[in-house]
Specification:
With 195 residues, the chain is mainly alpha-helical. The protein is built from nine helices and no strands. The chain is globular.
């Protein structure tokens, strides 16, 4: 599994979309490093939480378009917190929760598929159920992290019951939509190294 992830990571980009995804990855890494020295620690921590997903999307061999969308979405989600877009733009929080949870559900589906926990994606109904469950689980974990940050780190984090439930509904809806897509199309590249 580690060898396959390494092989996918070192695979040279073959399309414009591959190059764009790698540029977003590189920019994300540079911004996180710079933020360590220029931003409050909490902002650095939020930005750095995006890096595993940004790297994992390439390591598991997501299709190039999905890889790019994952990188952009996850980093925009983290950056929106740092520049306070969630408070500035009404509804932005729900949009980001839906899209971000959807792409993270795609990553979860591929990992579960490779571990042979579920059937392969594409032309099956299993991904609809599994993606939705994974999205709801990821949403719940995220909301617990938000609550922990609010309770023990800073009260600047916005946490209310309505916000929590709304975020989880949006995340579940995004994951459900991704599950429908995954039930009809492969999420991974044809030339990826199998995990």
């Amino acid at each position: 599994m580690i060898r396959a992830m390494y092989a996918n990571l070192k695979r040279p980009p073959r399309s414009v979309t591959d190059w764009l995804a790698d540029v977003v990855r590189a920019v994300a890494i540079v911004i996180v490093i710079v933020s360590l020295f220029t931003l409050p620690f909490t902002d650095f921590a939020v930005l750095s939480m995006s890096l595993p997903a940004v790297m994992l999307s390439r390591m598991i061999g997501l299709r190039s378009g999905l890889d790019l969308v994952t990188c952009v979405t996850v980093f925009v989600a983290a950056g929106s917190n740092v520049i306070d877009l969630y408070r500035a733009w009404t509804g932005w929080d729900l949009i980001v929760h839906a899209v971000c949870t959807g792409v993270l559900a795609a990553v979860a589906l591929v990992l579960l598929d490779d571990a042979r926990v579920i059937e392969p994606t594409g032309r099956r109904r299993t991904p609809i159920v599994v993606a939705t469950m994974a999205g709801l689980a990821l949403s719940a974990v995220w909301e617990m992290i938000e609550w922990f940050g609010y309770r023990f780190i800073t009260d600047a984090i916005f946490v209310t019951y309505d916000d929590t439930i709304g975020d989880m509904i949006a995340g579940g809806a995004g994951a459900l939509l991704l599950g429908v897509v995954a039930s009809r199309f492969r999420l991974t590249r044809a030339d990826r190294a199998a995990l």
